[in-house]
Amino acid sequence: MSEPRPLMGGRAQIKLTASQVIMRKYSLEIIVFITGAAVMILEIAGSRVLAPYAGTSVIAWTSLIGIILASLSAGYALGGRLADRYPSREFLSLILFAGGALTGGAAIMKGIILGGLFSITRSVYLISILGTLTLFALPSLILGMVSPFALRLRFGAREDSGRTAGNLYALSTLGSIIGTFAAGFYLLPAFGHRSIILGTGIALILLSLFTTERRLRAAGAIIILVFLAAGAGLIPLPQEKLGITDVDSAYQRLFVREGWDKGGRLIHYLMTDFFGTQSAAYADGSPEIIFPYIRFFRLGSHFVPRPQRALMIGGGGLTYPRDFALKEPQAKMDVAEIDPRVTALASTYFNFSKEKNVEIFHEDGRTFLNRAPSGKYDLVFMDAFRSFTPPPQLVTKEAMREIERVLKPRGVLVTNMIGALAGEKGEFPQTVLRTYKSVFPDVYVFAVDTKKTDTVQNLLLVAAKNKLDLVSADPEITEYLDHEIALTPAAGPIFTDDWAPVEYLVRNLLAPES
């Protein structure tokens, strides 16, 4: 191949030649390392792209992982054939260029595509499969073509082809490992999924430009400028910002939207997807509770008068811990909320200020239970959801045993659950109720709307080690007690740490009401 032309005198020529020598010597290793990282970064960031429209359940993850793996496999096969026909670095650079453009393009088009799918169907299966196919299949296929090309260019007639192949695959895998940890532990909470995907696209285009002729540099510069402008918010992207704030944490995608009640009062809503709302509070700072089911948590203080210590698993906007602190000043509440970013949003948008009798622990509810002392709490409240789904580790028999252990002898568990009282959409609540009854002698069900039977609503489960008093002189508490439903679960399995297909049972709740 001809020597590069000097740009400006001898010194510049020496520098350019030296950099090209380094790139020529290690370029293939660098390329497979970076593309290996790019694939995993795209996959992890892709989960946040899908989250508002398909949730974050195992269904969405299965679609994402399976389709990306299938696309990579197709890319390996297609790349091998093209490498035999066009074994040149120039063609490899075109692959990298296309991969970068398609990767960044996914960040720009995601709102249009997923918003369109969501307007057509509410099926988590269809949205996650079609969304992944549309946004991530083609860039994954293109990136899958890189390794066969690198192998073909490196092998030639060398006798150490086996060792060379092993080294390149090792570097690609090492890149995938580093990309996985970097995206999950640092990049997502630090920069957000859109910036990460756009940045990955830019990195791939730059990598292409380092290994290609000048004919692509103008196009590459234009695309990079477009991606940078999109990342800086200079280009309006349809349905991109989902609320007044839209952030990625280490655990999930979170956005806060505005709405108004019938009287025109402004409300802030905390959401992780479009299937449900995690918390709501009046923007004027009022401590008034908006969601009716949260007021049913006040039953806890009826069953255990003047409690001294309570635990809330799943803090969200911290609306009930604030209510508990105001109504039970003599008591202390521990709150196990896994996500610090949720707590920060609660302080900013949901009127929570640090109460002297409320302490926040940023920890998974199950691990918090595992290490909590026995007999510590008078009351345990549970309102933990991952997307539309309760975390499986918090609904199992083993989890109930841990709650039973940390409760005092006359302690009570109050849990918010979503489901129906009968029909297909009652399958999940029935399984939860059977699981509770396998540990607690007495379990009571309170329906927020007793007129509904086979449609989805909030159900409050109250579990205790002994019979509870369902009579009160307080009119408010009496109203809640009147919503008690004598629900006897049908025979069937219970949730255990070994078997807890929560996502598959909850999926029925997402189907439109008949």
How would you characterize the overall build of this protein?
The protein has helices spanning 9-54, 58-85, 89-120, 124-144, 146-155, 161-191, 193-210, 217-231, 292-295, 299-303, 319-327, 340-349, 365-371, 397-406, 427-437, 475-481, 502-506, and strands at 245-248, 253-260, 266-271, 279-282, 309-313, 332-336, 358-361, 377-382, 407-419, 442-447, 457-464, 484-485. The chain is of the alpha/beta class and 514 residues long. Helix 11 (319-327) links the parallel strand 5 (309-313) and strand 6 (332-336). Residues 1-16 have low confidence and may be disordered.
Task: Summarize this entry quickly.
The protein has 514 residues and is of the alpha/beta class. The protein contains 17 helices and twelve strands.
Question: Keyphrases for this structure?
Answer:
514 residues, alpha/beta, 17 helices, 12 strands, 52% helix, disordered N terminus
